[in-house]
């Protein structure tokens, strides 16, 4: 069934959500429309599954042993190195997901993003456990400024961010976080 | 002519770029199609003018006298407070701009973003001049992690970020920048 999801990703990136049809996805995957419908009865079902697959097949980052190394490695494999998954993610960001109704969009956006962030959250938590950042550091407050900025550069500004500028961004956020500026509000009281 | 540009923004946010027509814009603005064409001969011309108008009418932030205050004020008027311009910006981010051809998209995205960033760059430069951040600090490296993150929270995650979480983000980035982590690569050698 992964062929169907890959076909759905391609159709979505090219045609946008509104113009995407089960016919086009089935034709591209070389299966019958019934095969697609049976597994994913609605367009939101199909799009959700396709986006989650995209997240799952994103190249894995190795554990480098340091938080700085892990964050740079995650940025590299996800956003700096060329890969089929990166090109697809860029195509999808530029494609029309805007006319999903608000409810669906909200749920889908959160689901895909949370799944995509899991390995980054885990890397920050390992860093906190090793004492590289203060206890109570909020992983979201470390990862968002780094990855939202890189996505902005790649997706909105159409830049090809180099490794050096990604490293500088990681160093800026880690310098602030080491100073305790990313400790969760109320975490100090809670301990 | 601002009525036409406002109409273009509304049509764009609702229909997306591909489905946007001069007929729809003219009808919504209550003018003839010729009036629109005469001033903006092509769809990219019209969209560019409309997006730049959106940037220009964004609520102005007052000069608070400190960099921290200015950044929080800019975040507040642009992304936290409800305004017609904010709703439109959200609508447009969710609308389909994806099928502008790559060349146009690249130029338009950069132009609108650079224009939107000007007041933030100016605020950082005032802060550097006052000695709040080290000389050679790169304004882009201060503003991007703050505003890309807030946009991610509002546009992608559909959160309503509160002032407190925006302040924490500003404090995180400023803590790193004060430590010299946002000084432009090579700036120390150049002096």
Keywords:
mainly alpha; homodimer; 191 residues; Tetracycline Repressor, domain 2; 73% helix; 10 helices; Arc Repressor Mutant, subunit A
Descriptive notes:
The structure is a homodimer of 191-residue chains. In chain A, helix 1 (2-19) packs across helix 4 (43-57). The relative contact order of chain A is 0.12. The first copy, chain A, folds into 2 domains: 2-52, Arc Repressor Mutant, subunit A, CATH 1.10.10.60; 59-185, Tetracycline Repressor, domain 2, CATH 1.10.357. With 191 residues, chain A is mainly α. The longest helix of chain A is centred in the middle third of the chain and has 28 residues, at 102-129. The N and C termini of chain A lie far apart (48 Å). Chain A has 10 helices and no strands. Chain A has helices spanning 2-19, 22-29, 33-39, 43-57, 67-80, 84-94, 102-129, 139-156, 163-178, 187-190. The mean pLDDT of chain A is 87. The interface between A and B is large, with 40 and 41 residues.
List the helices and strands and how they pair.
Two copies of one chain form a homodimer.
Chain A: H1 2-19, H2 22-29, H3 33-39, H4 43-57, H5 67-80, H6 84-94, H7 102-129, H8 139-156, H9 163-178, H10 187-190
Helix pairs in contact in A: 1-2, 1-4, 1-6, 2-3, 4-7, 5-7, 5-9, 7-8, 8-9
Summarize the model shown.
Chain A is built from ten helices and no strands.
Structural class of chain A: mainly alpha
Task: Spell out the CATH superfamily of the largest domain in chain A.
Answer: Tetracycline Repressor, domain 2
How many beta strands in the DSSP annotation of chain A?
A: 0
What's the CATH architecture name of the largest domain in chain A? Orthogonal Bundle
- Main β-sheet description of chain A: none
Would you state the CATH class of the largest domain in chain A?
Mainly Alpha
Q: Give the oligomer, counting copies of the same chain as homo and different chains as hetero.
A: homodimer
Number of domains of chain A: 2
| Terminal residue distance of chain A | 48 Å
Uncertain segments of chain A: none
The tally of helices of chain A reads 10
């Amino acid at each position: 069934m992964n062929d169907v999801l890959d076909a759905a990703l391609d159709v979505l990136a090219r045609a946008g959500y509104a113009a995407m049809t089960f016919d086009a996805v089935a034709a591209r995957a070389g299966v019958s429309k019934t095969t697609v419908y049976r597994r994913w009865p609605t367009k939101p079902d199909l799009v959700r599954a396709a986006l989650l697959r995209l997240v799952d097949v994103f190249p894995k980052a190795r554990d480098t042993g340091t938080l700085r190394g892990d964050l740079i490695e995650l940025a590299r494999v996800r956003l700096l190195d060329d890969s089929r998954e990166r090109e697809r993610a860029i195509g999808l960001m530029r494609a029309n997901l805007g006319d999903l109704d608000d409810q669906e969009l909200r749920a889908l956006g959160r689901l895909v993003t949370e799944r995509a962030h899991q390995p980054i959250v885990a890397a920050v938590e390992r860093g906190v456990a090793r004492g590289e950042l203060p206890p109570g550091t909020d992983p979201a407050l470390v990862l968002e400024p780094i990855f939202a900025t890189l996505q902005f550069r790649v997706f909105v500004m159409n830049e090809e961010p180099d490794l050096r500028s990604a490293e500088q961004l990681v160093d800026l956020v880690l310098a602030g976080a080491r100073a305790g500026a990313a400790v969760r509000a109320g975490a100090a009281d809670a301990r």
